[in-house]
Design a protein that fits this description.
Strand content: under 5%
Number of strands: 2
Strand order of the largest sheet: 1-2
Largest sheet: 2 strands, antiparallel
Structural class: mainly alpha
Order of helices and strands: HHHEEHHHH
Number of helices: 7
Radius of gyration: 18 Å
């Protein structure tokens, strides 16, 4: 049984990454914020009494289901707004949580402005290419390599087989490597 403090610490630790996953999926900041908030509330209300070790997998499953629900609701809304000729604008996200990946210093000493610019450009390129991945590949890639979930946890969270997770991750990494190589970025 997790304590309320453990639940709060877990939610705080996944908030930024969950927002980035949601923004990749829906490409709308307000929708992504709603998805993350709804997912956190669902975890707290329905599974807050579970052991803290189960939170990562449960939260990822809830987050992915909430994203799917968002698209289902959007499809219905889209039908009505099309009939009424009202289109909602898509906003670009202003905040880049990938900045948390950037370290303040290189192991060899202080970073130069040039190296900081190069790193920022590389992170932006990676961010752009992740957005272009198909939804299931992006989902598997982010869970495996960003959330550091193993294959079994990712499969359970995505509701698919472990083989599907491996296939999605393989295709995503090959697509990212090819896209970044085409941009002249060697990782």
């Amino acid at each position: 049984m997790a304590s309320p403090n453990e639940l709060a610490l877990f939610l705080e630790s996944v908030e930024r990454r969950a927002f980035k996953q949601a923004i990749f999926a829906v490409r709308e900041e307000e929708g992504a914020l709603d998805i993350v908030q709804d997912s956190m509330l669902k975890l707290a209300e329905k599974y807050g009494d579970r052991p803290a070790e189960e939170f990562p997998m449960l939260f990822q499953r809830i987050l992915q289901n909430t994203i799917r629900d968002y698209f289902r609701r959007s499809k219905v809304r889209s039908m009505w707004t099309t009939v009424l000729s009202a289109f909602s604008p898509n906003d670009d996200d202003d905040h880049d949580p990938l900045e948390t990946l950037a370290a303040d210093e290189d192991p060899d000493g202080p970073r130069t402005p040039e190296s900081q610019l190069l790193q920022a450009q590389t992170l932006n390129a990676i961010d752009d290419e992740i957005k272009k991945l198909p939804a299931r590949q992006r989902e598997a890639f982010l869970m495996r390599y960003w959330e550091d979930m193993d294959v079994a946890e990712t499969a359970a969270a995505m509701g698919c087989s472990e083989g599907s997770v491996k296939t999605h991750c393989s295709r995503a990494t090959h697509a990212l490597a090819a896209a970044l190589s085409a941009r002249g970025i060697k990782l």
